Amino acid sequence: MKSHLWIEEKHGDFLAMKYKVEEVLFSGKSKFQSVDVVQTKGHGKMLLNDGLVMVTERDEFIYHDMIAHVPLFVHPNPKNVLIIGGGDGGTAREVLRHTGIVRCTMVEIDEMVVEACRKFIPQTSKDLDHPKMNLVIGDGLDFVKKSKEKFDIILVDSTDPIGPAQPLFGKEFYQDIFDCLNDDGIVVSQGESGFYEVKMQTKLMSILSDLFPVSLLYNFSNLTYPGGLWSFTFASKGLHPINDFNEKRIKESGLKFDYYNKDIHKGAFCLPSFMRKNLEPYLKG
Ligand code: SAM
Protein backbone atom coordinates (compact mmCIF):
# COMPACT_ATOMS: atom_id res chain seq x y z
CA MET A 1 0.00 0.00 0.00
CA LYS A 2 1.30 3.45 -0.91
CA SER A 3 2.16 5.54 2.16
CA HIS A 4 0.75 9.03 2.54
CA LEU A 5 2.66 9.65 5.75
CA TRP A 6 4.87 12.67 6.33
CA ILE A 7 6.67 13.42 9.55
CA GLU A 8 7.26 16.92 10.71
CA GLU A 9 10.21 17.89 12.89
CA LYS A 10 9.56 21.10 14.74
CA HIS A 11 12.31 23.43 15.84
CA GLY A 12 10.96 25.74 18.53
CA ASP A 13 7.72 27.43 17.53
CA PHE A 14 8.94 28.95 14.29
CA LEU A 15 10.39 26.27 12.00
CA ALA A 16 9.50 22.79 10.80
CA MET A 17 11.04 20.31 8.38
CA LYS A 18 8.93 17.61 6.71
CA TYR A 19 10.00 14.21 5.42
CA LYS A 20 8.00 11.74 3.34
CA VAL A 21 7.78 8.42 5.19
CA GLU A 22 7.44 5.10 3.37
CA GLU A 23 7.25 2.87 6.43
CA VAL A 24 7.35 3.12 10.19
CA LEU A 25 9.86 0.46 11.26
CA PHE A 26 9.90 0.98 15.02
CA SER A 27 8.07 3.14 17.54
CA GLY A 28 8.73 2.89 21.25
CA LYS A 29 8.70 4.88 24.44
CA SER A 30 11.61 4.36 26.84
CA LYS A 31 12.08 5.75 30.34
CA PHE A 32 13.91 8.67 28.75
CA GLN A 33 12.30 9.53 25.43
CA SER A 34 10.27 8.36 22.46
CA VAL A 35 12.32 6.42 19.92
CA ASP A 36 11.24 6.02 16.29
CA VAL A 37 12.88 4.54 13.23
CA VAL A 38 11.24 5.28 9.89
CA GLN A 39 12.05 4.53 6.28
CA THR A 40 11.95 7.89 4.50
CA LYS A 41 11.68 8.43 0.79
CA GLY A 42 14.57 10.89 0.45
CA HIS A 43 16.98 10.17 3.30
CA GLY A 44 16.93 6.41 3.88
CA LYS A 45 16.28 5.17 7.38
CA MET A 46 15.95 7.86 10.02
CA LEU A 47 16.20 7.72 13.83
CA LEU A 48 14.16 10.22 15.83
CA ASN A 49 14.35 10.75 19.60
CA ASP A 50 11.40 12.71 20.99
CA GLY A 51 10.46 13.61 17.41
CA LEU A 52 13.88 15.16 16.69
CA VAL A 53 16.04 13.80 13.87
CA MET A 54 19.18 12.11 15.21
CA VAL A 55 20.58 10.42 12.12
CA THR A 56 19.56 9.59 8.58
CA GLU A 57 21.31 7.07 6.37
CA ARG A 58 21.81 9.65 3.67
CA ASP A 59 23.86 12.22 5.57
CA GLU A 60 25.03 10.61 8.82
CA PHE A 61 28.55 10.25 7.34
CA ILE A 62 29.07 14.01 7.58
CA TYR A 63 28.34 14.28 11.31
CA HIS A 64 30.25 11.11 12.15
CA ASP A 65 33.30 11.99 10.03
CA MET A 66 33.50 15.38 11.69
CA ILE A 67 32.95 14.37 15.32
CA ALA A 68 35.52 11.57 15.12
CA HIS A 69 38.28 12.28 12.61
CA VAL A 70 39.02 15.91 13.51
CA PRO A 71 40.27 15.04 17.05
CA LEU A 72 41.63 11.63 16.00
CA PHE A 73 43.96 13.26 13.48
CA VAL A 74 45.02 16.01 15.92
CA HIS A 75 45.93 13.71 18.81
CA PRO A 76 49.31 12.14 17.89
CA ASN A 77 48.59 8.71 19.33
CA PRO A 78 44.97 8.16 20.41
CA LYS A 79 44.39 4.80 22.06
CA ASN A 80 41.54 5.15 24.52
CA VAL A 81 38.36 6.93 23.41
CA LEU A 82 35.15 7.60 25.34
CA ILE A 83 31.85 8.41 23.62
CA ILE A 84 28.99 9.87 25.68
CA GLY A 85 25.62 9.17 23.99
CA GLY A 86 26.02 8.09 20.37
CA GLY A 87 23.50 5.22 20.65
CA ASP A 88 23.12 4.85 16.88
CA GLY A 89 26.75 3.65 16.74
CA GLY A 90 27.96 5.91 13.90
CA THR A 91 30.60 7.69 15.99
CA ALA A 92 31.96 4.40 17.35
CA ARG A 93 32.11 3.01 13.81
CA GLU A 94 34.35 5.89 12.70
CA VAL A 95 36.56 5.75 15.82
CA LEU A 96 37.16 2.03 15.30
CA ARG A 97 38.45 2.58 11.76
CA HIS A 98 41.65 3.95 13.34
CA THR A 99 43.79 0.86 13.86
CA GLY A 100 45.75 2.40 16.77
CA ILE A 101 42.64 2.51 18.95
CA VAL A 102 42.90 0.01 21.78
CA ARG A 103 39.51 0.57 23.39
CA CYS A 104 36.38 2.55 22.58
CA THR A 105 33.96 2.95 25.48
CA MET A 106 30.47 4.20 24.66
CA VAL A 107 28.09 5.26 27.44
CA GLU A 108 24.53 5.55 26.15
CA ILE A 109 21.70 6.14 28.59
CA ASP A 110 18.93 4.58 26.52
CA GLU A 111 19.13 0.89 25.64
CA MET A 112 16.08 1.26 23.38
CA VAL A 113 18.05 3.54 21.03
CA VAL A 114 20.88 1.02 20.79
CA GLU A 115 18.55 -1.94 20.21
CA ALA A 116 16.40 -0.12 17.64
CA CYS A 117 19.52 0.89 15.70
CA ARG A 118 21.06 -2.57 15.95
CA LYS A 119 17.92 -4.00 14.40
CA PHE A 120 16.96 -1.36 11.86
CA ILE A 121 20.02 0.81 11.08
CA PRO A 122 23.02 -1.53 10.64
CA GLN A 123 24.71 1.19 8.58
CA THR A 124 25.51 3.04 11.81
CA SER A 125 25.32 0.25 14.39
CA LYS A 126 27.38 -2.40 12.57
CA ASP A 127 30.46 -2.12 14.82
CA LEU A 128 28.78 -2.02 18.23
CA ASP A 129 29.95 -5.59 18.85
CA HIS A 130 33.53 -4.94 17.68
CA PRO A 131 36.08 -6.60 20.02
CA LYS A 132 37.53 -3.18 20.98
CA MET A 133 34.08 -1.86 21.95
CA ASN A 134 33.08 -1.45 25.57
CA LEU A 135 29.37 -0.58 25.47
CA VAL A 136 27.92 0.71 28.74
CA ILE A 137 24.21 1.40 29.17
CA GLY A 138 24.15 4.20 31.71
CA ASP A 139 24.19 7.92 32.35
CA GLY A 140 27.24 9.64 30.88
CA LEU A 141 27.11 12.16 33.69
CA ASP A 142 27.55 9.48 36.40
CA PHE A 143 30.14 7.67 34.32
CA VAL A 144 32.56 10.60 34.09
CA LYS A 145 31.99 11.51 37.75
CA LYS A 146 32.96 8.03 38.94
CA SER A 147 35.47 6.95 36.31
CA LYS A 148 39.05 6.28 37.41
CA GLU A 149 40.02 5.59 33.80
CA LYS A 150 41.76 8.30 31.72
CA PHE A 151 40.97 8.89 28.07
CA ASP A 152 42.87 10.44 25.16
CA ILE A 153 39.71 11.69 23.47
CA ILE A 154 36.15 12.15 24.71
CA LEU A 155 33.35 12.65 22.18
CA VAL A 156 30.06 14.02 23.50
CA ASP A 157 27.58 12.76 20.90
CA SER A 158 24.45 13.86 22.68
CA THR A 159 20.95 14.99 21.86
CA ASP A 160 19.92 18.62 22.25
CA PRO A 161 19.94 19.93 25.86
CA ILE A 162 16.54 18.58 26.82
CA GLY A 163 15.67 15.61 29.07
CA PRO A 164 18.63 13.44 30.11
CA ALA A 165 21.04 15.42 27.90
CA GLN A 166 20.43 18.74 29.68
CA PRO A 167 23.24 18.34 32.27
CA LEU A 168 25.61 17.37 29.44
CA PHE A 169 25.69 21.08 28.62
CA GLY A 170 26.72 22.09 32.17
CA LYS A 171 29.98 23.08 33.88
CA GLU A 172 30.11 20.23 36.38
CA PHE A 173 30.03 17.68 33.58
CA TYR A 174 32.90 19.40 31.78
CA GLN A 175 34.95 19.61 34.98
CA ASP A 176 34.53 15.82 35.28
CA ILE A 177 35.46 15.41 31.60
CA PHE A 178 38.61 17.50 32.22
CA ASP A 179 39.53 15.20 35.13
CA CYS A 180 38.98 12.07 32.97
CA LEU A 181 41.27 13.25 30.18
CA ASN A 182 44.98 12.48 29.90
CA ASP A 183 47.38 15.45 29.87
CA ASP A 184 47.18 15.68 26.07
CA GLY A 185 43.43 14.97 26.04
CA ILE A 186 40.80 16.44 23.70
CA VAL A 187 37.03 16.72 24.09
CA VAL A 188 34.74 17.30 21.11
CA SER A 189 31.04 17.95 21.69
CA GLN A 190 27.92 18.37 19.62
CA GLY A 191 27.85 22.17 19.50
CA GLU A 192 24.37 23.09 18.19
CA SER A 193 23.42 25.63 15.52
CA GLY A 194 25.21 28.96 15.15
CA PHE A 195 21.99 30.39 13.72
CA TYR A 196 19.30 29.10 16.02
CA GLU A 197 21.04 28.17 19.29
CA VAL A 198 23.34 31.12 19.87
CA LYS A 199 22.68 31.23 23.63
CA MET A 200 23.33 27.52 24.09
CA GLN A 201 26.42 27.58 21.91
CA THR A 202 27.84 30.62 23.70
CA LYS A 203 27.16 29.04 27.10
CA LEU A 204 28.94 25.83 26.11
CA MET A 205 31.92 27.76 24.76
CA SER A 206 32.13 29.90 27.89
CA ILE A 207 32.24 26.73 30.06
CA LEU A 208 34.95 25.19 27.88
CA SER A 209 37.06 28.35 27.77
CA ASP A 210 36.90 28.60 31.60
CA LEU A 211 38.21 25.06 31.99
CA PHE A 212 40.51 24.35 29.04
CA PRO A 213 43.58 26.17 27.65
CA VAL A 214 42.31 25.53 24.10
CA SER A 215 38.63 26.08 23.27
CA LEU A 216 37.48 26.46 19.66
CA LEU A 217 34.50 25.60 17.50
CA TYR A 218 34.18 24.17 14.02
CA ASN A 219 31.30 23.97 11.56
CA PHE A 220 29.98 21.42 9.13
CA SER A 221 27.01 21.43 6.81
CA ASN A 222 24.26 18.89 7.12
CA LEU A 223 21.03 18.08 5.32
CA THR A 224 18.79 17.34 8.25
CA TYR A 225 19.70 19.59 11.17
CA PRO A 226 17.74 22.86 11.26
CA GLY A 227 19.46 25.60 9.29
CA GLY A 228 21.89 23.21 7.58
CA LEU A 229 24.94 24.63 9.39
CA TRP A 230 25.90 22.79 12.58
CA SER A 231 28.91 22.74 14.87
CA PHE A 232 31.20 20.83 17.17
CA THR A 233 33.19 22.38 19.98
CA PHE A 234 36.86 21.40 20.34
CA ALA A 235 38.60 21.80 23.72
CA SER A 236 41.91 20.40 24.86
CA LYS A 237 44.57 20.53 27.56
CA GLY A 238 47.07 21.82 24.99
CA LEU A 239 46.75 20.29 21.53
CA HIS A 240 45.68 22.80 18.86
CA PRO A 241 43.45 21.57 16.02
CA ILE A 242 45.43 23.37 13.31
CA ASN A 243 48.96 23.85 14.73
CA ASP A 244 49.13 20.23 15.92
CA PHE A 245 47.39 18.77 12.88
CA ASN A 246 49.78 16.60 10.89
CA GLU A 247 47.89 16.20 7.62
CA LYS A 248 50.30 13.49 6.40
CA ARG A 249 48.73 11.13 8.91
CA ILE A 250 45.49 11.08 6.88
CA LYS A 251 47.30 9.63 3.85
CA GLU A 252 49.37 7.29 6.01
CA SER A 253 46.19 5.92 7.63
CA GLY A 254 44.94 4.69 4.25
CA LEU A 255 41.42 5.71 5.31
CA LYS A 256 39.01 7.20 2.77
CA PHE A 257 36.22 9.58 3.71
CA ASP A 258 33.21 10.97 1.87
CA TYR A 259 33.21 14.31 3.75
CA TYR A 260 36.38 14.72 5.80
CA ASN A 261 39.71 15.70 4.21
CA LYS A 262 42.70 17.88 5.17
CA ASP A 263 41.20 21.06 3.72
CA ILE A 264 37.81 20.50 5.37
CA HIS A 265 39.70 19.93 8.64
CA LYS A 266 41.40 23.32 8.43
CA GLY A 267 38.54 25.24 6.83
CA ALA A 268 35.96 24.05 9.36
CA PHE A 269 37.61 26.19 12.05
CA CYS A 270 37.22 29.37 9.94
CA LEU A 271 34.04 30.82 11.36
CA PRO A 272 31.68 33.20 9.58
CA SER A 273 31.83 36.73 10.98
CA PHE A 274 28.44 36.61 12.72
CA MET A 275 29.53 33.54 14.69
CA ARG A 276 33.00 34.90 15.40
CA LYS A 277 31.43 38.05 16.85
CA ASN A 278 29.34 36.03 19.35
CA LEU A 279 32.05 33.57 20.25
CA GLU A 280 35.17 35.76 20.16
CA PRO A 281 35.57 36.04 23.98
CA TYR A 282 35.58 32.24 24.29
CA LEU A 283 37.83 31.26 21.37
CA LYS A 284 41.17 30.33 22.93
CA GLY A 285 44.33 28.74 21.62
N1 SAM B 1 23.72 12.91 16.05
C1 SAM B 1 22.80 13.16 17.03
C2 SAM B 1 22.20 14.52 17.12
O1 SAM B 1 22.79 15.44 17.67
O2 SAM B 1 21.12 14.66 16.59
C3 SAM B 1 23.07 12.55 18.37
C4 SAM B 1 22.92 11.08 18.22
S1 SAM B 1 22.84 10.01 19.53
C5 SAM B 1 21.40 9.13 19.08
C6 SAM B 1 22.41 10.93 21.00
C7 SAM B 1 22.19 10.02 22.18
O3 SAM B 1 22.54 10.68 23.39
C8 SAM B 1 20.74 9.58 22.37
O4 SAM B 1 20.59 8.24 21.99
C9 SAM B 1 20.47 9.79 23.87
O5 SAM B 1 19.77 8.73 24.46
C10 SAM B 1 21.88 9.94 24.41
N2 SAM B 1 21.95 10.64 25.69
C11 SAM B 1 21.23 11.73 26.09
N3 SAM B 1 21.55 12.04 27.36
C12 SAM B 1 22.49 11.15 27.77
C13 SAM B 1 23.20 10.96 28.98
N4 SAM B 1 22.98 11.76 30.04
N5 SAM B 1 24.09 9.95 29.07
C14 SAM B 1 24.31 9.13 28.00
N6 SAM B 1 23.66 9.26 26.82
C15 SAM B 1 22.77 10.26 26.71
Care to describe what's here?
With 285 residues, this protein is of the alpha/beta class. The protein contains ten helices and twelve strands. The strands form two sheets. The protein has a seven-stranded mixed beta sheet. Strand 1 and strand 2 (15-29) form a beta hairpin. The mean pLDDT is 96. Bound molecules: S-adenosylmethionine (SAM). Residues 32, 49, 54-55, 63, 84-88, 107-110, 113, 139-141, 157-159, 164-165, 168, 190 line the site of S-adenosylmethionine (SAM).
Write the layout of secondary structure elements.
Layout (H helix, E strand, L loop, with lengths): L5 E6 L3 E15 L4 E7 L4 E5 L2 E5 L3 H15 L5 E6 L4 H6 L7 E6 L2 H10 L1 H4 L7 E5 L2 H7 L4 E7 L13 H10 E10 L7 H14 L2 E8 L7 E8 L11 H6 L8 H6 L5 H7 L6
Parallel strand pairs: 6-7, 6-9, 7-8, 9-10
Antiparallel strand pairs: 1-2, 2-3, 3-4, 4-5, 10-12, 11-12
Helix pairs in contact: 6-7
The site of S-adenosylmethionine has 25 residues, from strand 5, strand 6, strand 7 and helix 5.
